[in-house]
Write a structure and sequence with these properties.
Number of domains of chain A: 1
CATH topology of chain B: 60s Ribosomal Protein L30, Chain: A
Number of helices of chain B: 4
Largest sheet of chain B: 6 strands, mixed
Oligomer: heterodimer
CATH architecture of chain A: 3-Layer(aba) Sandwich
Shape of chain A: globular
Helix content of chain B: 25-40%
Largest interface: A-B, 16 and 22 residues
CATH topology of chain A: Rossmann fold
CATH architecture of chain B: 2-Layer Sandwich
Radius of gyration of chain B: 15 Å
Radius of gyration of chain A: 13 Å
Number of strands of chain B: 11
Largest sheet of chain A: 5 strands, parallel
Number of domains of chain B: 1
Chain lengths: 128, 194
């Protein structure tokens, strides 16, 4: 039993279909404790009540985008240390540069596959 | 196939070329505009184009995609990711120009069964597009999917006027990696107004 089965993750994406695909990829890796939010604001509210060790968030979202969510999480002590993977468009270097100072653990360029997500998670939490 | 799709969608800004106010959307591309004079065109065989607009914000756009045909479960997921990505690029482009999700209306075209043996591909693409819009709660107003003839589609994204014309199989674009049919092909067939 790998630690992945104990890992709690929040997926933040405004597209239902994207959330389902990411959820599917995480479940393939044995991650089953998955919370979901449809935008940054919803995610922030939930994470302030119940901080989670890993957040995988889209960038383009209404209300609060991925970068705004990252900054808010870093500013709030209980969530300031969580792992944060930002989903970006391919080669969006300007966004990557903006997010860097806030301690992003990785960038996932959409569309991505389960093994790529796994590599990112292993980089944060170590190999399983 | 998937690599080619990804490559195209990432470099679309660079390859988009306009002829007057007419813009042709090729496989793997999308285009969003709030310019009422711009006409978007495409030619479809098994591929699907989603024409989506927000009539209140006066913005609209079109994409053009083909999910690689896939029987295996793993490959099917991969294909879906590509398709979701193509839809997401179009929707994010619309949102960035002020569109609101609840105001969006979509028309879907394409997904024809063009070739014996490849007939599943058109159907799969049409089914994917319909279920995607269903999941995202985006209203499908009209359009034309399936059949066994290719389509030439014209869409004015701001006014929403849409025209689809059926074309001969020989004039329909062959899915990538072979280049799509060149611009300016004179098609013959029925004209449907949407």
């Amino acid at each position: 039993m790998s630690y992945l089965s104990h890992l709690r993750v929040m997926i933040v994406d405004d597209m239902t279909t994207s959330r389902m695909l990411i959820r599917g990829a995480l479940e393939e890796l044995g991650i089953n404790q998955i919370a979901m939010a449809a935008d940054g604001e919803q995610a922030l509210k939930a994470l302030m009540v119940q901080p989670l060790p890993l957040v995988i968030s889209d960038f383009n979202m209404p209300k609060l985008d991925g970068l705004g969510l990252l900054r808010a999480l870093r500013a709030y002590q209980p969530t300031s240390k969580c792992g944060f993977i930002l989903m970006t468009g391919k080669g969006d270097q300007a966004l990557i540069d903006k997010a860097k100072p806030y301690g992003v653990a990785g960038y996932l360029a959409k569309p991505f596959t389960a093994p790529i997500v796994k590599a990112h998670i292993e980089r944060i939490f170590g190999r399983m | 196939m998937s690599t080619a799709l990804r490559h195209q969608s990432s470099s679309l800004a660079a390859v988009q070329s306009r002829v007057g106010k007419r813009h042709h959307v090729l496989q793997g591309e999308f285009f969003v505009t709030d310019d009422p004079e711009i006409l978007l065109t495409t030619v479809l065989g098994s591929c699907v184009a989603a024409c989506i607009r927000d009539p209140q914000a006066g913005v609209g756009g079109m994409n053009h995609f083909l999910l690689p045909g896939a029987m295996e479960r793993a490959a099917e997921k991969e294909a879906q990711r590509e398709g979701v990505h193509m839809m997401e690029l179009l929707l994010n482009g619309l949102f960035q120009r002020g569109a609101r999700r609840q105001h969006l209306e979509a028309r879907l075209f394409g997904g024809a069964n063009m070739f014996a043996g490849l007939s599943e591909i058109g159907r799969q693409n049409a089914a994917f597009a319909e279920s995607f819009l269903g999941y995202e709660g985006i209203r499908v107003v009209r359009g034309s999917l399936g059949g066994n003839q290719g389509r030439r589609v014209e869409f004015w994204p701001v006014s929403g006027v849409t025209r689809a014309q059926s074309i001969k199989a020989a004039e329909a674009p062959v899915p990538m990696p072979v280049a799509p049919a060149p611009r300016g092909n004179e098609g013959r067939g029925d004209v449907e107004l949407f």
